[in-house]
Structures are given as C-alpha cells and as structure tokens.
C-alpha cells in the first residue's frame, strides 16, 4: 500500500508508534491495536511505523510488532537503525524481515545510546552509516553477490523487495550543518532511497527547502512531511536539546505554554496544528505525511487525518502559523515566492560564499599530492618500500609505529587500518565523530555541536565542510561515496594497506572472464573507492 501510494502520488499516510521497554504494556501494544482499530475508523493509513530502540534506549524489537501488525491486516514501516548492528546483523535482520514479508524500511543512523541500559550504557556499533546501509539493502534487492562455491566466483542471493525510506534533518542553524544534511541526503538518494521522511520540525520553509534542494539536483523522490503533535512538556525537552536533532524555538514553547493553560491542556490546539500541517504538506505537493506524537490515541490519529484533508483548500493561509525559525537561521534558498510545487530551482551551492583556505588542510594536501597521488614519484617509491616491508616484518612493525605516532599526534588516528583521512579532509571520523560517519554527519548536531558531546565537541563535519569549501572542493561532499571501514584491516598499517592496494581506495585488479552457470566472475581485488553517480 505504501509503495503504491508513493508511486502513484496518492498522498501516503503513515502513523508512528514508539514502543517502550518490556514485552508488553500500553506503549508496546498500541501499534497493533491501532492497526486493528483502523478497519472501523474508515480512514486510509498506508503504513504503521515502529521505531527501533528510540533515543538509543532499549525497546522491544519493531520486527516482532511489525509481524503483529501484519496479522491484523495492517502494513508496517520498520525503522532500521545502524546504531546497534554490524554488517552481519544488518544482513541477517534484512533477510529475516524479507522472509516475514516486511518490505517497508526507514533506514537511519540512529540516536547515540543515551541511558544506562544494563550495568552501564550500551556501545553504539555504527559499522555502516545510512548511505552505506541503503546501498547494501539496494544490492540485496538486486540479488546481492556473495562468494560462490568455486574459488574466484560469485553467486547471487534471492532478491529482496524492500522499499527504502531515509531521513534528513533540515532544521539546522548554520550553513555547514544544513548543506551537509542536503549533501548526505543526495548520497542516500543516489544510493537507492525510495522516499524521505524528514526530522520533525515547525518551520514550513525548511520543509519546503528539502523539495527545493531535490528539484535543484533533478532528483525525483517523494518526501513525506513529518507531523509531530507537540505537547508543552515534549517541547521543553526538545528546546533544551533533549531529543537529538529536534528543534523547538523559544517562541513556539511560549505559545504551547499558553495553550497548555486551557481547560483541555492545549490538546485541541495541538491536534488542530497537526491537521493544518497535513493540509499544508498536501498543498505543497509532498508525497504524504508521517504522523506521530507522545501518547496519541487511535482517535487522535483519525481526527488529524480526516480534519487535515478537510482543511486542504485553506492550506496556504496556515503557513505563517507554522513558521518558527531562530535568529540567524540559515536557509539554502531565497524566501519562497510560493509554497506550491515547482521543479525549477537553482543549485544553492552556486550562491555560497567561497570560504576560507585552511593552512593545515593545505599542508596535508601538499604531502598527500607528493606521496599518495598515484602519479607521483613518491607514490611509486613508497609502493616499492612497502613491498619490501612485506618480507621484513620487524621493520614493517617499526614503520607502522612511526605512522601511528605521526597520525595520532597530528590527526587523532585510531589505527583502523583503512584510512578515510583523504576522504574527510584529514578529520579522522574514527576519532572526531562519535558515530564514525564517513559520508556526512548524522542528523543529531545542534548549533554546530556534536549530538554526543553537545558542550565539548563541534560536529566533526563542520570543519570538513569548511576545509573542502575553502579549497573549492565542496562537490566532493555530495559526489564521493566512501565505503565502510574494512574491519579486517584494524590495527594494521593504513599506509601499507593503501600502497599495497588493500584498503577501500584500492584500484580494482583485472577482472577475469565470467565463469559458471548462475555464478559470475569475482572481482579479484577489493572494492574500489566508488562514486555513486
Ligand atoms: S560528530 Fe557530527 S556526525 Fe558525528 S556523531 Fe557528532 S553530530 Fe553526529
């Protein structure tokens, strides 16, 4: 149902449930109960959306609840977070979901683990970022290639049929954060995302900018508007940065405070605002709406959907009611002349200021050009040197220690052995980014600071953006796909792995001819550093 609604442009409706911890209880049972109630309600909900360990806290698996939703005739949309699973677990879960007939996934990075779960806080995994995960799942849809029975061959697994949604957080204060969100969104789309659900927010101009950015890049992917029914209590938590990536302005909090003094504690106004947002998203040409909110009952969802569709003829008059921005908020596009759908937009990158040159970045770039550029004499000498070291292990070990000392002192190296420094403007994602993101920031940064260390560390990607922009290389941020770290190289020399063609940047080896029915020739070398265009 969701796939058809998005494909046909018939305005998809998804309703989000956040199951709690434990095997049962009202929060856990609410999603299946809602799916049951829908039959009598007479409204169309194309998918019931279930979060995946929301806020980095443990909760019952959405996969189990999704199966229950299917049993009562509903269609689930399962959140698929990269936080808690490595590649093995991601593929294992994906195949289990496919076997259960669950096809709608919302692929996200995931909030960092935040609370003590059991004898402390759990570790985040973040083996893949959302771009890499979408690419992986898309390859499963095509029948992913795995090693075949005969050495040097591959075989294809049975194809899955996932519909892949992704997130984006446009409610960012600064140019760096907002443009990076759009660049990463573009990578997700080019990796195979089928639809987009933005972070919750209350600035329709920012929602519109997602569609304007997609139009400016000639990307035609449906965006499902986020309608979150915001209570005064939740707003205060978000105002204080308590929910990663969620922005609620002082002005909106003051409005909700006044509404909460009304006899119904502001519920009527909250539901009305949500219905108005449904009407606006429909009028603005969004692919649908994703409705959520703490403690919403089935009747509340039904009211928002019905009333929102009734209000559609007046949608433009509601825009000033949901236009909460902060002082100095950066917008990628000029103020819109209209909020109606248009496909003619200029690439906002063309209007950005040139940026400042980073001396640090220039020096590392110069060294890189002399020693790591495959056409440089230094590169050829170092290839010979590292081949020599392969046969002289003690000397190789000493060289590795020297490399680690230099890179850890100047660049914060964590000795992962599959160095991403040239991809990330010499800001090590293993050290600088709590979620080890290689293709752009997560959605959790706030006013330029990291989600995980909001008062201590700026988001690692701010400096990456500034360095590349200052060097006139901003395009790399949205063009280059950076593969995940090869775990088999951990604690080995990144330089050796580069010069000996073992890391993610390796040049592919010659491909032998295809062989064997149902199997194709394997690429004898590791996957090259790819561009996803
Ligand atoms: S450094 Fe940036 S991308 Fe990494 S976890 Fe922090 S906010 Fe997210």
Give your account of this protein's structure.
The chain has 533 residues and is of the alpha/beta class. The protein has 2 domains: 2-351, TIM Barrel (Alpha-Beta Barrel); 359-506, no CATH class. It is 39% helix and 10% strand. It has 18 helices and 11 strands. The chain has helices at residues 2-8, 26-41, 62-71, 87-99, 130-141, 175-191, 204-216, 232-239, 250-260, 267-283, 298-310, 359-371, 377-390, 393-411, 429-432, 460-470, 476-479, 494-499, and strands spanning 12-17, 47-50, 76-81, 104-108, 145-147, 153-156, 163-168, 195-198, 224-228, 288-292, 519-521. The strands form 2 sheets. Strands 8-7-4-3-2-1-10-9 form an 8-stranded parallel beta sheet. Strand 5 (145-147) and strand 6 (153-156) form a beta hairpin. Helix 5 (130-141) runs parallel beside helix 6, helix 8 runs antiparallel to helix 9 and helix 10 (267-283) crosses helix 11 (298-310). The longest helix is centred in the C-terminal third of the chain and has 19 residues, at 393-411. Bound molecules: iron/sulfur cluster. Iron/sulfur cluster (SF4) binds next to helix 16.
């Amino acid at each position: 149902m969701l796939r058809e609604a998005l494909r046909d442009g018939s305005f998809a409706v998804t309703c989000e449930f956040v199951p709690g911890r434990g095997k049962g209880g009202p929060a856990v049972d609410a999603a299946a109960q809602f799916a049951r109630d829908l039959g009598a309600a007479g409204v169309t909900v194309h998918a019931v959306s279930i979060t995946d360990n929301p806020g980095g806290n443990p909760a019952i698996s959405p996969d189990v609840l999704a199966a229950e939703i299917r049993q009562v005739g509903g269609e689930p949309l399962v959140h698929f977070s990269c936080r808690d699973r490595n590649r093995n677990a991601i593929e294992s879960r994906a195949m289990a979901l496919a076997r259960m007939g669950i096809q709608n996934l919302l692929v996200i990075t995931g909030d960092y683990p935040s609370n003590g779960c059991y004898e402390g806080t759990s570790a985040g995994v973040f083996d893949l970022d959302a771009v890499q995960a979408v690419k992986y799942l898309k390859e499963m849809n095509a029948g992913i290639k795995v090693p075949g029975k005969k050495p040097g061959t591959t075989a294809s697994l049975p194809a899955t049929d996932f519909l892949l949604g992704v997130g984006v957080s446009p409610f960012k204060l600064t140019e760096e954060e907002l443009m990076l969100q759009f660049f990463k969104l573009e990578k997700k789309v080019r990796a195979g995302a089928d639809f987009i659900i933005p972070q919750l927010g209350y600035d329709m101009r920012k929602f519109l900018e997602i569609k304007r950015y997609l139009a400016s890049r000639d990307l035609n992917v449906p965006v499902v508007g986020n309608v979150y029914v915001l209570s005064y209590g939740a707003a205060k938590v978000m105002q204080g940065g308590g929910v990663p990536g969620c922005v609620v302005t002082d002005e909106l909090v003051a409005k909700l405070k006044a509404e909460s003094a009304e006899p119904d504690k502001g519920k009527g106004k909250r539901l009305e605002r949500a219905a108005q947002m449904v009407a606006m998203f429909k009028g603005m040409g969004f692919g649908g709406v994703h409705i959520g909110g703490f403690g919403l009952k089935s009747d509340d969802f039904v009211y928002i959907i019905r009333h929102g569709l009734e209000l559609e003829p007046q949608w433009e008059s509601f825009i000033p009611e949901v236009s909460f921005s902060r002082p100095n908020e950066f917008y990628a596009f000029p103020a819109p002349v209209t909020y109606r759908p248009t496909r003619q937009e200029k690439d906002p990158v063309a209007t950005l200021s040139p940026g400042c040159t980073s001396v640090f970045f220039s020096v590392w770039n110069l060294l890189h050009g002399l020693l790591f550029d495959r056409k440089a004499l230094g590169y050829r000498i170092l290839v010979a040197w590292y081949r020599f070291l392969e046969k002289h292990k003690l000397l190789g070990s000493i060289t590795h220690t020297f490399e680690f000392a230099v890179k850890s002192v100047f660049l914060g190296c964590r000795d992962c052995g599959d160095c991403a420094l040239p991809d990330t403007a010499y800001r090590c994602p293993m050290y600088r980014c709590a979620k080890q993101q290689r293709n752009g920031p997560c959605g959790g940064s706030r006013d330029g600071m990291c989600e995980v260390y909001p008062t201590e560390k700026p988001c690692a990607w701010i400096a990456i953006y500034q360095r590349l922009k200052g060097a006139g290389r901003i395009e790399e941020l949205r063009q280059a796909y950076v593969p995940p770290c090869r775990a088999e190289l951990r604690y080995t020399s990144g330089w050796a792995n580069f010069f000996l063609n073992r890391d993610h940047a390796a040049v592919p080896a010659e491909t032998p001819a295809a062989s064997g029915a149902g199997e194709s020739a394997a690429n004898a070398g590791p996957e090259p550093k790819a561009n996803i265009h």
